[in-house]
Amino acid sequence: MVAMGRTAGKKTRVQRSEEVRDALFQAAAEVVGEYGYIDASITRITQRANLAQGTFYNYFASRQEIFDELLPVLGAKMLAHIRQQASGARTFLEKEELSFRAFFSFLKRMPYFLRILNEAEIFAPKAHRQHFHNITGGYMRFLRNARKNGEIADLSDEALEPLVYMLIATRGYLALRYTDENGVVNLPEEAVTVYLQLLTNGLSGRMTSGNR
Asked: Which InterPro entries does the annotation name (predicted)?
C-alpha cells in the first residue's frame, strides 16, 4: 500500500513539463513587467524561474516565441479569474459589475499585466492580436446572450462589436488612470458607480436598434 501511494504521488513527465513551462511564463511575465520587452532577456527569465538557461530552449526556440504566447496565456488566466468571480451573477448587470470588479482585482494580483499588454502591440503584435480576439469574442457572446434574454437593447451585431471595444477601453483607461507610481491599481468606488449607471441608462431598450 505504501509503495502504491508513492507511485500515485509521483509526477508524470507531462506534469513536470507543464510546471516548468508555467514557471517560464510566470518568470517572463514578471521580467517583462519589470524591465519591458526590450530588456527581458532569456538569462533574466531563466534566473527568475530558477532554471538553467539551456532549459529555456527545450520549450521555446527563441525569446520572441515566448513573447508571442505570453499575453494570450495571461489573458486566459484573467478570463478564468473573471468567470470565477462572476459565477454567482443572475442578471446581465450583476455579471457585468462582478466582471468589472474582477478585472481590477486581477490587476492587483498581477500588476505587471498592464505593461505586458500595452507594450505587446509593438513587441509582440501576434500575441496582441490573439489576446484581443479572445477577449472580444467572449464579450460578444456575453452581449448576444443578454440581447437574446431581453436584458439589453435589441442592438445588431454591427452595433455590439464597437460597444465591446468601448467597454474594454473603459477598463483599460481606468486602470491607467488609477495605477499609482508603484504599479498598484486602486479603483475608486465612484468609478464603479458611474460605469454601472452608464450601462443601465445606455443599454436600455430605449436605444436605437442599429437597423437590424
From this structure: Homeodomain-like_sf, HTH-type_Tx_Regulator, HTH_TetR
